[in-house]
Amino acid sequence: MSRVRIRFSKHGAMKYLGHLDLLRFFQKAIKRADIPVAMSHGFSPHQLLSFAMPLSVGLTSEGEYFDMELDTKESGISCDEIKRRLSETMVDGIEIMAVSLLSKDEKNVMAAVSKASYVVYYKRHPNWESKASPKELVTYFKELSSLRWEKETKKGTKVIDLKKEVSFFGAGCFDDCFFKAHPCFDNTGEFLTKEGDPFFLITLSAGSNNNIRPEAFFEVLLNDYTKEHYTIVTEGNGTGDLAVHRVELIFDR
Amino acid sequence: MSRSGRLALPDDILLSVDKAARYIGNEVNSVIKDRDSVDIRIAMCFPDVYEIGMSHIGMQILYSMWNERPDTWCERVFCPWPDLFSVMKERGIRLFALESQEEIISFDFVGITLMYEMCYTNVLEMLDLSGIPLHSKDRGDDCPIVMGGGACTYNPEPIAPFFDFFYIGEGEVMYDRILDLYKSHKRSGNYSRKAFLHEVAKLPGVYVPSLYEVTYNSDHTIKAFSPKYPDIPSVIKRQVVKDLDSAYYPTKPVVPNVRAVQDRAVIEVQRGCIRGCRFCQAGDTYRPTRERSVEKCLSIAKDVLSSTGYDELSLSSLSTSDYRELSRLMDELIDICKEENVNISLPSLRIDAFSLDVMGKVQDVKKSSLTFAPEAGSQRLRNVINKGLSVEDIMDGALKAFLLGWNKVKLYFMLGLPTETKEDREEIAHLANEVAALYYDAIPKEKRKGRVSINVSTSFFVPKPFTPFQWYRMFPPGEYLGRAHDVNSTIKSELNHKSINYSWHDAETTVLEGVFALGDRRVAPAIEYAYKKGQIFDAWTDFFDFSVWEEAFEKTGIDIDFYIGRIKPFREILPWDFIDCGVSRKFLEREWERAMEGKITKNCREGCSLCGCIDMKTGVCMEERKREGVS
Ligand code: SF4
Ligand code: SF4
């Protein structure tokens, strides 16, 4: 049975689509595009798809992935053809970026994810910048020996050292060229970033075992740095401090 | 064409409300046009939440039909959920259409689909959020024309002051002429809404409430209902599609982004019902029964599946078992769907050998349940309501199904029907018990997969306009609950009570529905009062507060018993008498009398009972068969 991995982006108005609705969106798109997808057996067969790392509502991404098994009886469809047919039936805000064939022994996408990279920038809270300028914050983090996070889980509190979960952390500035090359950043037009605005680039542990959400990381770090209590919100109660854009998922081979 | 620009709601709001994707539009098959190249902009409003409105096939039909016109752009609007409603109110954000994300106050038409009475406060919510004055009389020339259509227009009076006009009947027929007329008025250069409404009132099916005057007798009954001007028609005739095959049907319906109640392709196979159950408004107001050909249904099914990518398909109509070529249609559909990996979800069919065979083919017997709607417990009462489903039918069907592996049964009944007695209610429990007993008799112990499960549910009967029971009355909530209690306690005393589960509908909601269904113009202030007191989404128990409604009726001087608490004489003028819905007054009166005598009336195929719809010269009325007339 052949498998393909599909990379897509999610931005604009579609960033408000929940994960289950996104799943249904793709199930229908695959049918509209008439892709020979393999089906499960049983009374109501479903498409054999597996999605990696649900993105929280409100985040944008150019690093979304799912794997699709193809029906071998009807094989012969090329990756280019899959990309072409799917692209034809997308809506604004979801773009098929790449389709590639997987080798037999490749792990499925959810099991393969080990890290995720994000661009993070301030939505609105100009005083934050003075309290915590990106460069200073990065330096501060690098000099810490550990960063303790007491994570509330269903099974109780779990202590995590965030220092061990970050493989890259840097600060930069949007320049005109970088920004234009990334239409996936918020194109609802609401907080378009200007040239010179700061952003963070961060790579965090990800996957089913040990997943660190960037908003959680920033909350812990900023609390530690300013000794004030911040609740960082990218979703949920609407104050929206940080904009998070997922750039890429990194897979174990 | 793709949409540019911002969303109507800012990010912080979208991230704080439940299911933000309800408000972003951008769905597959939604229509984006260039605003500068159209003459008419329509906001099609559904006064309920997105997931419900998007499941409504009538709305999809009108949406696609209007957008076929190059000069018209029709967009969708749903009722913001209470969480968003309060934020919009607070921040002064106006109601917008999903496609363009633009405020609908600048549109030409605001069309409101009225499918059930309990949405009336939501209608006011939508007008209010739009910035449109609630009352037609307060609207200026630059305000959109507010029109209403749908099932509730068979008595539009309780909401008449809020609408500029209602369209009565099936939308496919007259809307083109309405839009053309509007365009010519706009082009004239000196448009006035008053002049437009006066002209549109002359089109068949159009009712402009402000052009009619109602006077009352000292006992509050209606004395006269008449047009204010000689050139305005005194009777409004329901508009009917003659031929479903050539009628417009959307093959590219909008695919909801948030899972809708009906997340599937829907094929309307017929309109109308031949059965004539005397409590059923749809059974009268959609007459005569018209079928869509098998070929047309199949071609629609293929087109809809390929344009939407749905993996499920369902048929829609009243009493689908009466579709004459159902067996051929099902065979062909099953073939198509197998090939396309699409599931078929069945409408509720009369349970017999045929339907069980089909059900066995397309659904998981273990999971699915059998549905019977005898509506009344005793044969006597079933004769009164003309429900042609006998105990033998139920027992035969259930037995066959049990032998094939089914063990879940749903039974639907109504309480509060004309002539109903305690015995009739107790019969509901006996019937449920007998069905359970049948299972244990028919299926040997070792073959049973657990206990049989019988779900009995009752709703309270609401008399509806244009039914033979339109003169009948309702009861106070306490009385209804007493009747449900009769059923409940009898069920408890049955031998198989452990296999029977009983639930009943909310009595207070039902009473309110009755006031809206049977009320006249004088009810409107109470609806406005309740809205202003914060009542919205009355159909949702979480938001429904009957005490606010009691206060509203009291403060606006409305005695609900006048509308729902008495049996009305034939001579009384009913608020909806100005509508000619096809079935004649004589027929309804005759049917009421036959009901009281416990006489059943044949269905349209067994024999025409000359209900009046024959004048429309279409559908079942034109089929070859005996004409019995009055017997
Ligand atoms: S069978 Fe009876 S209840 Fe059902 S739609 Fe027909 S008339 Fe109405
Ligand atoms: S005229 Fe006869 S056949 Fe036609 S709808 Fe009425 S009862 Fe049925």
Molecular structure report:
The complex is a heterodimer of chains A (253) and B (631). With 253 residues, chain A is an alpha+beta fold. Chain A has helices at residues 19-32, 79-88, 109-112, 126-131, 134-143, 176-180, 214-226; strands at 3-10, 49-51, 60-69, 94-102, 113-122, 148-153, 156-161, 166-173, 198-205, 242-251. Chain A has 2 domains: 2-106, Pseudouridine synthase I, catalytic domain, N-terminal subdomain (Alpha-Beta Plaits, 2-Layer Sandwich); 112-251, no CATH class. Chain A has 7 helices and 10 strands. In chain A, strands 1, 2, 3, 4, 5, 8, 9 and 10 form an 8-stranded mixed β-sheet that branches. Chain A starts with a strand and ends with a strand. Chain B has 20 helices and 19 strands. In chain B, strands 2-1-3-4-5-6 form a 6-stranded mixed β-sheet, covered by helices on one side. A 4-stranded parallel β-sheet of chain B has the order 15-16-17-18, covered by helices on one side. In chain B, helix 5 (120-130) packs across helix 17 and helix 14 runs parallel beside helix 15. The longest helix of chain B is centred in the C-terminal third of the chain and has 21 residues, at 422-442. The chains are: A alpha+beta (253), B alpha/beta (631). Chains A and B meet through helix 1 of A and helix 1 and helix 9 of B. The structure holds iron/sulfur cluster (SF4) (2 copies). One iron/sulfur cluster (SF4) is lined by residues 287-288, 604, 608-611, 613-614, 620-621 of chain B.
